[in-house]
Structures are given as structure tokens and as C-alpha cells.
Amino acid sequence: MEWYAYERELAAKGYNVICGVDEAGRGPLAGPVFAAAVVLDPQHEIEGLNDSKKLSPKKRELLFDEIREKALDFGIWAVDEKTIDEINILQATFLAMTRATEQLETVPDIAVIDGNRLPPAMPCECMTLVKGDSLCTSVAAASILAKVSRDRFMMIMHEKYPEYNFAKHKGYGTKEHCEAILKFGPSPVHRRSFLKKLLPEESTDE
Length: 206
What we know:
By secondary structure, the protein is of the alpha/beta class.
């Protein structure tokens, strides 16, 4: 595909400030869900942008810095595990996306949301795009900011709770991670509502 083509199509329809929005961390058993909103500069295209899941960690880190440097605007927001337990992961994801977009200094003409569900309280016109991180450059950039921000946070949690080895799996439900939860119990950053099958006796009311 030709990157930036989606933005050019939207610009031809009269949308000048185009924002891509994506999240990282809906599925893990621990840690926050992160979202990012990015307005790219069409005059300064960034080479190598892609869906964050298709890039190596090293490449994501390099692009993270380049996006922050060259983008016209960006916002990043995290919703913690306690809030996820309180309002559920879908609503927490919507909240992170909304807050990330609200961080932008300029209200976008349109926000392209990765997926097929619109957050209900976005501060601008929105549209959904399934597999947007593979189809829309702005969404791909947002996916990288969200993913790298979350991974960096989980590295800090690894230092704080080394027994879970968050540095390796970033909180996802790997065999090693599940075994660590069974051995040590949940940490303060685990999503209690995600542990019901693993720890059926664990109360989610704490």
C-alpha cells in the first residue's frame, strides 16, 4: 500500500487536520491501557511507519522519537488497572482515546479511530477504520506512540515487581506470567477483573 494515501483522500474531502488514534494494551493481565492521538505533518513524511505489531522493538523506539519530533501534534494517555476493573476494558480504552485526543493543541477536523467502535465522547468528528494501523499512516504512528509508551511503563513495573518478569511479556498472559501469578499472587498493577479464571477465588472488590 502507499502510506499517506488515506490522509490524502481525506484531505481531498476537505479535512485538513487529520488525527490518527490507536491503543495498546487491551489484552494484558497487568498494567494500564494506553492510547495515542497523532497529527502528522504532510510536509515531513516519516519513513518506515507501520502497524507497531509489525515492527521490531528497536525500530519502534526509533520511530517513537521521530514521530514526537516531526508530528504537528500528538497526545498520549493511560488508564490504569484499577479504572479498568471499575469500568471494564472497552470503556477504559474509549476513555484513553478520548483523553489522548483532548491533549492535542488543535481540535482535529476528523479523528480516524482504529477498530470498529467509536468512543462516545470524542472532542471532534470521528470515523472508524478496521485495521487502521495497517491502512492509515496517522493511525500507525499512534499505534507506535501507544505501544512504546506502554512498554516503557511495563519496564518500570519490571523493576518494581521483578518476580513477574514484565520486561519479557509486558503483562500479557503467557505461561510464565500465569505461573508467576499463581506462585506470588497478583501484584498491585494486575487487573483483578482479568484474573477470574486464573484465580476464581480472588475478589475483584478490593
